[in-house]
Write a structure and sequence with these properties.
about 425 residues, alpha/beta, Beta-Lactamase, TIM Barrel, eight-stranded mixed barrel, six-stranded antiparallel beta sheet, 14 helices
Length: about 425
Protein backbone atom coordinates (compact mmCIF):
# COMPACT_ATOMS: atom_id res chain seq x y z
CA UNK A 1 0.00 0.00 0.00
CA UNK A 2 1.53 3.33 -1.02
CA UNK A 3 1.68 6.38 1.22
CA UNK A 4 -1.30 8.10 -0.44
CA UNK A 5 -3.49 5.05 0.02
CA UNK A 6 -2.40 4.79 3.66
CA UNK A 7 -3.56 8.37 4.19
CA UNK A 8 -6.92 7.54 2.60
CA UNK A 9 -7.38 4.59 4.95
CA UNK A 10 -6.70 6.87 7.93
CA UNK A 11 -9.20 9.43 6.60
CA UNK A 12 -11.85 6.73 6.23
CA UNK A 13 -11.29 5.23 9.65
CA UNK A 14 -11.04 8.53 11.54
CA UNK A 15 -14.00 10.23 9.83
CA UNK A 16 -16.26 7.17 9.61
CA UNK A 17 -16.85 7.25 5.84
CA UNK A 18 -16.62 4.01 3.86
CA UNK A 19 -15.28 5.61 0.68
CA UNK A 20 -12.46 8.14 0.24
CA UNK A 21 -11.24 9.36 -3.13
CA UNK A 22 -8.61 11.70 -4.52
CA UNK A 23 -9.87 13.10 -7.81
CA UNK A 24 -8.24 15.20 -10.50
CA UNK A 25 -10.60 17.24 -12.67
CA UNK A 26 -9.62 18.27 -16.18
CA UNK A 27 -11.59 20.24 -18.75
CA UNK A 28 -14.05 17.45 -19.47
CA UNK A 29 -13.67 14.63 -16.96
CA UNK A 30 -13.01 13.59 -13.37
CA UNK A 31 -10.28 10.98 -12.79
CA UNK A 32 -9.90 9.11 -9.49
CA UNK A 33 -6.15 8.72 -8.97
CA UNK A 34 -6.43 7.06 -5.55
CA UNK A 35 -9.49 5.39 -4.08
CA UNK A 36 -10.28 3.53 -0.88
CA UNK A 37 -13.47 1.58 -0.20
CA UNK A 38 -14.65 1.14 -3.79
CA UNK A 39 -13.48 -0.34 -7.06
CA UNK A 40 -11.57 1.93 -9.39
CA UNK A 41 -13.87 2.94 -12.18
CA UNK A 42 -13.54 4.74 -15.45
CA UNK A 43 -13.31 8.50 -15.65
CA UNK A 44 -16.69 10.19 -15.43
CA UNK A 45 -17.97 13.26 -17.17
CA UNK A 46 -17.26 16.44 -15.26
CA UNK A 47 -20.90 17.51 -15.50
CA UNK A 48 -21.87 14.36 -13.53
CA UNK A 49 -19.22 14.85 -10.81
CA UNK A 50 -19.88 16.31 -7.36
CA UNK A 51 -16.26 17.44 -7.30
CA UNK A 52 -16.88 19.81 -10.20
CA UNK A 53 -18.87 22.08 -7.87
CA UNK A 54 -16.08 22.15 -5.27
CA UNK A 55 -13.45 22.85 -7.93
CA UNK A 56 -15.45 25.63 -9.58
CA UNK A 57 -16.29 27.35 -6.30
CA UNK A 58 -12.88 26.75 -4.69
CA UNK A 59 -14.68 25.92 -1.44
CA UNK A 60 -15.59 22.74 0.44
CA UNK A 61 -18.84 21.11 -0.62
CA UNK A 62 -21.19 19.35 1.82
CA UNK A 63 -24.16 17.33 0.60
CA UNK A 64 -26.01 15.64 3.44
CA UNK A 65 -28.72 14.00 1.35
CA UNK A 66 -27.90 13.79 -2.34
CA UNK A 67 -31.29 12.21 -3.15
CA UNK A 68 -33.04 15.39 -1.95
CA UNK A 69 -30.62 17.89 -3.49
CA UNK A 70 -31.88 19.09 -6.90
CA UNK A 71 -28.33 19.91 -7.99
CA UNK A 72 -27.25 16.28 -7.77
CA UNK A 73 -30.24 13.93 -7.38
CA UNK A 74 -30.23 13.01 -11.09
CA UNK A 75 -26.53 12.16 -11.16
CA UNK A 76 -25.88 8.47 -12.06
CA UNK A 77 -23.91 7.89 -8.82
CA UNK A 78 -26.93 9.04 -6.80
CA UNK A 79 -29.48 7.08 -8.81
CA UNK A 80 -27.36 3.93 -8.45
CA UNK A 81 -27.09 4.35 -4.69
CA UNK A 82 -23.32 4.96 -4.65
CA UNK A 83 -23.56 8.45 -3.17
CA UNK A 84 -26.03 9.40 -0.45
CA UNK A 85 -23.83 11.93 1.35
CA UNK A 86 -20.73 13.71 0.09
CA UNK A 87 -18.04 15.99 1.54
CA UNK A 88 -15.20 17.26 -0.64
CA UNK A 89 -12.46 19.85 -0.26
CA UNK A 90 -10.47 21.40 -3.12
CA UNK A 91 -6.87 20.40 -3.76
CA UNK A 92 -4.46 23.09 -4.92
CA UNK A 93 -1.60 22.33 -7.28
CA UNK A 94 1.17 24.44 -8.69
CA UNK A 95 0.66 28.18 -9.03
CA UNK A 96 -2.27 27.91 -6.58
CA UNK A 97 -4.54 26.37 -9.22
CA UNK A 98 -7.31 24.07 -7.99
CA UNK A 99 -6.78 20.70 -9.68
CA UNK A 100 -9.24 18.41 -7.94
CA UNK A 101 -10.56 17.27 -4.58
CA UNK A 102 -10.21 14.79 -1.77
CA UNK A 103 -13.69 13.64 -0.83
CA UNK A 104 -15.46 11.27 1.55
CA UNK A 105 -18.62 9.45 0.49
CA UNK A 106 -21.37 7.52 2.25
CA UNK A 107 -24.00 5.61 0.27
CA UNK A 108 -26.58 6.74 2.84
CA UNK A 109 -27.62 10.31 3.72
CA UNK A 110 -26.02 11.56 6.92
CA UNK A 111 -25.53 14.69 8.97
CA UNK A 112 -22.33 16.59 8.25
CA UNK A 113 -20.92 19.12 10.69
CA UNK A 114 -18.21 21.75 10.79
CA UNK A 115 -15.89 19.28 12.52
CA UNK A 116 -16.06 16.93 9.51
CA UNK A 117 -15.11 19.74 7.15
CA UNK A 118 -12.29 21.01 9.37
CA UNK A 119 -10.73 17.56 9.67
CA UNK A 120 -10.96 16.87 5.94
CA UNK A 121 -9.33 20.24 5.22
CA UNK A 122 -6.42 19.17 7.46
CA UNK A 123 -6.09 15.88 5.62
CA UNK A 124 -6.36 17.74 2.33
CA UNK A 125 -3.12 19.58 3.08
CA UNK A 126 -1.34 16.28 3.60
CA UNK A 127 -2.71 14.95 0.30
CA UNK A 128 -1.56 18.15 -1.46
CA UNK A 129 1.95 17.69 -0.06
CA UNK A 130 2.05 14.07 -1.20
CA UNK A 131 0.81 14.89 -4.71
CA UNK A 132 3.31 17.72 -4.97
CA UNK A 133 6.13 15.38 -3.95
CA UNK A 134 5.08 12.79 -6.54
CA UNK A 135 5.02 15.47 -9.25
CA UNK A 136 8.42 16.86 -8.26
CA UNK A 137 9.99 13.41 -8.21
CA UNK A 138 8.80 12.75 -11.75
CA UNK A 139 9.96 16.14 -13.03
CA UNK A 140 13.34 15.99 -11.34
CA UNK A 141 14.04 12.53 -12.69
CA UNK A 142 13.32 13.83 -16.15
CA UNK A 143 15.50 16.88 -15.87
CA UNK A 144 17.76 15.76 -13.06
CA UNK A 145 21.16 16.55 -14.53
CA UNK A 146 20.88 20.33 -14.59
CA UNK A 147 19.07 20.46 -11.25
CA UNK A 148 21.63 18.19 -9.59
CA UNK A 149 24.47 20.38 -10.82
CA UNK A 150 22.81 23.43 -9.28
CA UNK A 151 22.22 21.61 -6.00
CA UNK A 152 25.83 20.42 -5.86
CA UNK A 153 26.97 24.01 -6.24
CA UNK A 154 24.48 25.19 -3.61
CA UNK A 155 25.81 22.69 -1.07
CA UNK A 156 29.38 23.70 -1.86
CA UNK A 157 28.58 27.43 -1.56
CA UNK A 158 26.70 27.11 1.73
CA UNK A 159 23.23 27.88 0.36
CA UNK A 160 21.72 24.76 1.97
CA UNK A 161 21.17 25.75 5.59
CA UNK A 162 19.22 24.51 8.60
CA UNK A 163 16.07 26.14 9.88
CA UNK A 164 14.85 25.08 13.30
CA UNK A 165 11.57 23.99 14.85
CA UNK A 166 11.32 23.41 18.61
CA UNK A 167 10.50 20.05 20.16
CA UNK A 168 8.46 20.74 23.31
CA UNK A 169 7.90 18.67 26.44
CA UNK A 170 4.14 18.14 26.52
CA UNK A 171 3.92 18.27 30.31
CA UNK A 172 6.22 21.19 31.15
CA UNK A 173 5.93 23.15 27.89
CA UNK A 174 9.73 23.56 27.78
CA UNK A 175 11.76 23.40 24.59
CA UNK A 176 13.96 20.31 24.94
CA UNK A 177 15.37 20.16 21.40
CA UNK A 178 15.28 21.61 17.93
CA UNK A 179 14.85 19.74 14.67
CA UNK A 180 17.12 20.99 11.90
CA UNK A 181 15.20 21.25 8.62
CA UNK A 182 16.96 21.91 5.33
CA UNK A 183 16.27 25.08 3.35
CA UNK A 184 17.86 26.37 0.14
CA UNK A 185 18.55 30.07 0.59
CA UNK A 186 19.26 31.44 -2.90
CA UNK A 187 21.40 34.50 -3.43
CA UNK A 188 18.30 36.16 -4.89
CA UNK A 189 16.61 35.90 -1.49
CA UNK A 190 14.23 33.12 -2.54
CA UNK A 191 13.93 30.20 -0.12
CA UNK A 192 13.14 26.66 -1.28
CA UNK A 193 11.61 24.10 1.04
CA UNK A 194 12.94 20.51 0.95
CA UNK A 195 10.28 19.22 -1.44
CA UNK A 196 11.95 21.30 -4.11
CA UNK A 197 15.42 19.76 -3.86
CA UNK A 198 15.68 16.81 -1.48
CA UNK A 199 14.02 14.23 -3.81
CA UNK A 200 16.68 14.75 -6.49
CA UNK A 201 19.41 14.44 -3.87
CA UNK A 202 17.87 11.19 -2.59
CA UNK A 203 18.38 9.64 -6.02
CA UNK A 204 22.15 9.74 -5.50
CA UNK A 205 24.85 10.03 -2.86
CA UNK A 206 24.38 13.79 -3.05
CA UNK A 207 21.96 13.37 -0.14
CA UNK A 208 24.92 12.42 2.05
CA UNK A 209 26.64 15.75 1.41
CA UNK A 210 23.35 17.58 1.91
CA UNK A 211 22.70 15.87 5.25
CA UNK A 212 26.23 16.57 6.44
CA UNK A 213 26.06 20.23 5.39
CA UNK A 214 22.87 20.73 7.41
CA UNK A 215 24.20 18.75 10.36
CA UNK A 216 27.51 20.61 10.57
CA UNK A 217 25.84 24.02 10.73
CA UNK A 218 23.11 22.80 13.07
CA UNK A 219 25.67 21.49 15.55
CA UNK A 220 27.58 24.77 15.45
CA UNK A 221 24.34 26.54 16.41
CA UNK A 222 23.64 23.90 19.05
CA UNK A 223 27.07 24.47 20.58
CA UNK A 224 26.26 28.17 21.00
CA UNK A 225 22.79 27.56 22.45
CA UNK A 226 24.06 24.96 24.92
CA UNK A 227 25.99 27.69 26.74
CA UNK A 228 22.56 28.86 27.92
CA UNK A 229 20.85 25.47 28.06
CA UNK A 230 23.36 22.61 28.50
CA UNK A 231 20.65 19.96 28.18
CA UNK A 232 19.41 21.16 24.77
CA UNK A 233 19.44 18.55 21.99
CA UNK A 234 19.48 18.72 18.19
CA UNK A 235 17.56 16.37 15.89
CA UNK A 236 18.98 15.98 12.38
CA UNK A 237 17.93 13.91 9.39
CA UNK A 238 19.91 10.95 8.12
CA UNK A 239 19.36 9.30 4.75
CA UNK A 240 19.64 5.53 4.47
CA UNK A 241 22.35 6.09 1.86
CA UNK A 242 24.80 6.92 4.65
CA UNK A 243 24.68 3.26 5.67
CA UNK A 244 26.00 2.19 2.26
CA UNK A 245 29.42 3.61 3.21
CA UNK A 246 31.88 2.24 5.73
CA UNK A 247 32.87 5.71 6.98
CA UNK A 248 29.29 6.68 7.94
CA UNK A 249 29.85 6.71 11.70
CA UNK A 250 33.27 8.32 11.35
CA UNK A 251 31.86 11.28 9.40
CA UNK A 252 29.04 11.86 11.87
CA UNK A 253 31.41 11.75 14.82
CA UNK A 254 33.71 14.19 13.04
CA UNK A 255 30.82 16.64 12.56
CA UNK A 256 30.03 16.54 16.28
CA UNK A 257 33.68 16.90 17.25
CA UNK A 258 34.22 19.86 14.91
CA UNK A 259 31.28 21.69 16.53
CA UNK A 260 32.42 20.79 20.03
CA UNK A 261 29.16 19.06 21.02
CA UNK A 262 28.85 15.58 22.52
CA UNK A 263 27.19 12.96 20.28
CA UNK A 264 24.84 12.32 23.21
CA UNK A 265 23.20 15.70 22.47
CA UNK A 266 22.35 14.69 18.88
CA UNK A 267 19.36 12.64 17.67
CA UNK A 268 19.56 11.11 14.19
CA UNK A 269 16.12 10.66 12.62
CA UNK A 270 15.51 7.78 10.20
CA UNK A 271 12.43 7.29 8.00
CA UNK A 272 11.28 4.48 5.77
CA UNK A 273 11.03 6.31 2.46
CA UNK A 274 14.47 5.45 1.07
CA UNK A 275 15.86 2.04 1.86
CA UNK A 276 19.58 1.27 2.16
CA UNK A 277 20.99 -1.05 -0.48
CA UNK A 278 23.02 -3.11 2.00
CA UNK A 279 20.13 -4.74 3.83
CA UNK A 280 18.80 -4.57 7.36
CA UNK A 281 21.58 -6.54 9.03
CA UNK A 282 24.24 -4.05 7.99
CA UNK A 283 22.00 -1.12 8.94
CA UNK A 284 21.26 -2.66 12.34
CA UNK A 285 24.99 -2.95 12.99
CA UNK A 286 25.58 0.67 11.91
CA UNK A 287 22.70 1.95 14.06
CA UNK A 288 24.09 0.13 17.07
CA UNK A 289 27.53 1.60 16.41
CA UNK A 290 25.98 5.08 16.30
CA UNK A 291 24.21 4.46 19.61
CA UNK A 292 27.39 3.06 21.14
CA UNK A 293 29.10 6.30 20.06
CA UNK A 294 26.52 8.28 22.02
CA UNK A 295 24.09 9.39 19.30
CA UNK A 296 20.36 9.01 19.80
CA UNK A 297 18.59 7.25 16.92
CA UNK A 298 14.88 7.77 16.22
CA UNK A 299 12.39 6.37 13.72
CA UNK A 300 10.50 9.15 11.95
CA UNK A 301 7.02 9.20 10.37
CA UNK A 302 5.89 6.26 12.49
CA UNK A 303 2.29 5.08 12.20
CA UNK A 304 1.71 5.49 8.47
CA UNK A 305 3.41 2.40 7.02
CA UNK A 306 3.66 -1.27 7.91
CA UNK A 307 7.44 -1.20 7.48
CA UNK A 308 7.72 0.91 10.62
CA UNK A 309 7.06 -2.23 12.66
CA UNK A 310 9.62 -4.03 10.53
CA UNK A 311 12.16 -1.35 11.48
CA UNK A 312 11.49 -1.90 15.18
CA UNK A 313 12.10 -5.63 14.77
CA UNK A 314 15.53 -5.00 13.25
CA UNK A 315 16.79 -1.75 14.70
CA UNK A 316 17.49 -0.82 18.31
CA UNK A 317 16.47 2.83 18.58
CA UNK A 318 15.86 5.43 21.27
CA UNK A 319 12.59 6.98 20.15
CA UNK A 320 9.69 7.18 17.72
CA UNK A 321 8.26 10.24 15.94
CA UNK A 322 4.55 9.89 15.20
CA UNK A 323 3.48 11.15 11.79
CA UNK A 324 1.30 14.27 11.50
CA UNK A 325 -1.40 12.31 9.65
CA UNK A 326 -2.00 10.47 12.94
CA UNK A 327 -2.08 13.83 14.75
CA UNK A 328 -5.00 15.01 12.60
CA UNK A 329 -6.93 11.88 13.59
CA UNK A 330 -6.52 12.55 17.33
CA UNK A 331 -9.89 12.80 19.06
CA UNK A 332 -11.38 10.02 16.92
CA UNK A 333 -11.53 6.34 17.97
CA UNK A 334 -8.97 5.26 15.35
CA UNK A 335 -6.63 8.21 15.96
CA UNK A 336 -6.67 7.74 19.71
CA UNK A 337 -6.29 3.97 19.45
CA UNK A 338 -3.41 4.26 16.99
CA UNK A 339 -1.60 6.83 19.12
CA UNK A 340 -2.07 4.79 22.29
CA UNK A 341 -0.88 1.66 20.49
CA UNK A 342 2.33 3.43 19.45
CA UNK A 343 2.97 4.99 22.86
CA UNK A 344 2.15 1.69 24.57
CA UNK A 345 4.64 -0.11 22.35
CA UNK A 346 7.21 2.62 22.98
CA UNK A 347 6.68 2.38 26.73
CA UNK A 348 7.12 -1.39 26.67
CA UNK A 349 10.39 -0.96 24.75
CA UNK A 350 11.57 1.97 26.92
CA UNK A 351 11.42 4.37 23.96
CA UNK A 352 10.46 8.05 23.94
CA UNK A 353 7.82 9.51 21.61
CA UNK A 354 7.43 12.81 19.78
CA UNK A 355 4.23 13.62 17.90
CA UNK A 356 4.50 15.95 14.89
CA UNK A 357 2.06 18.42 13.36
CA UNK A 358 0.56 19.81 16.57
CA UNK A 359 -1.36 22.97 15.66
CA UNK A 360 -3.89 23.41 18.49
CA UNK A 361 -3.81 23.18 22.26
CA UNK A 362 -6.53 20.53 22.05
CA UNK A 363 -4.25 18.31 19.94
CA UNK A 364 -1.41 18.84 22.40
CA UNK A 365 -3.68 17.90 25.33
CA UNK A 366 -4.96 14.81 23.52
CA UNK A 367 -1.43 13.73 22.61
CA UNK A 368 -0.27 14.10 26.21
CA UNK A 369 -3.31 12.16 27.46
CA UNK A 370 -2.52 9.37 24.98
CA UNK A 371 1.00 9.01 26.34
CA UNK A 372 3.18 11.12 24.03
CA UNK A 373 6.27 12.63 25.65
CA UNK A 374 7.06 15.51 23.28
CA UNK A 375 5.31 17.56 20.61
CA UNK A 376 6.35 19.54 17.58
CA UNK A 377 4.30 21.87 15.40
CA UNK A 378 2.96 25.31 14.62
CA UNK A 379 1.20 25.57 17.98
CA UNK A 380 4.58 26.56 19.38
CA UNK A 381 6.53 27.87 16.38
CA UNK A 382 7.15 27.36 12.67
CA UNK A 383 10.63 26.45 11.42
CA UNK A 384 12.86 29.52 11.58
CA UNK A 385 16.44 30.47 10.70
CA UNK A 386 18.96 30.51 13.53
CA UNK A 387 18.96 34.30 13.68
CA UNK A 388 15.27 34.30 14.64
CA UNK A 389 15.70 32.02 17.63
CA UNK A 390 16.31 34.16 20.68
CA UNK A 391 18.14 33.17 23.83
CA UNK A 392 14.93 32.60 25.79
CA UNK A 393 13.65 30.20 23.16
CA UNK A 394 16.91 28.26 22.96
CA UNK A 395 17.25 28.28 26.74
CA UNK A 396 14.42 25.80 27.08
CA UNK A 397 11.49 27.97 28.18
CA UNK A 398 8.22 28.21 26.32
CA UNK A 399 8.51 29.20 22.64
CA UNK A 400 7.86 32.81 21.71
CA UNK A 401 4.51 34.18 22.75
CA UNK A 402 4.20 35.81 19.34
CA UNK A 403 4.57 32.58 17.41
CA UNK A 404 1.07 33.10 16.05
CA UNK A 405 -2.46 32.05 16.81
CA UNK A 406 -2.94 28.32 16.28
CA UNK A 407 -4.25 27.77 12.79
CA UNK A 408 -2.74 30.93 11.31
CA UNK A 409 0.69 29.42 10.67
CA UNK A 410 -0.33 26.12 9.19
CA UNK A 411 1.20 24.74 6.01
CA UNK A 412 0.57 27.01 3.08
CA UNK A 413 1.22 26.59 -0.59
CA UNK A 414 4.61 27.75 -1.88
CA UNK A 415 5.13 31.36 -2.86
CA UNK A 416 8.01 32.47 -5.07
CA UNK A 417 9.92 34.17 -2.25
CA UNK A 418 8.86 32.03 0.70
CA UNK A 419 7.65 28.53 -0.09
CA UNK A 420 5.59 26.41 2.26
CA UNK A 421 7.15 24.88 5.31
CA UNK A 422 7.45 21.10 5.21
CA UNK A 423 9.84 19.04 7.27
CA UNK A 424 12.52 17.24 5.39
CA UNK A 425 11.77 14.21 7.52
CA UNK A 426 8.55 13.68 5.61
CA UNK A 427 10.36 12.95 2.37
CA UNK A 428 13.68 11.36 3.20
CA UNK A 429 15.00 8.43 5.23
CA UNK A 430 15.55 10.71 8.19
Amino acid sequence: MDRLETTLVLISRSMGFPVVSVNIVDEDSQHSISLFGADHGDAISRVEAFCDTAVRSGRPLQVQDATADPRFNRFPAVLSGEIGAYLGVPLTGRESLIVGTVCVIDPHPRTLGAEHQARLLEFGRIVEDQLDLIRRLKEQRLDGQVATTDLTRAIRDGEIVPWYQPVVHLTTGDTVAFEALARWEHNSGAIDDPRQFVPMAEDSDLIIELDLAVMRQALVDLSRWRHTNPSLRMAVNLSARHFDHQDCVEKLLAAAAAAGVPPASVDLELTETTRPSTGYRHVADAVQELRDSGFGVWLDDFGTGWSSLDHLLWLRVDGIKIDRAVTIALGTPIGDALTQAVTGLADALALRTTIEGIETQRSADLARARGCDYGQGYLWAPPEPAASINNTHAAGSNPRADAGTPGTRRLQKPRPAAPSTVTISSISFT
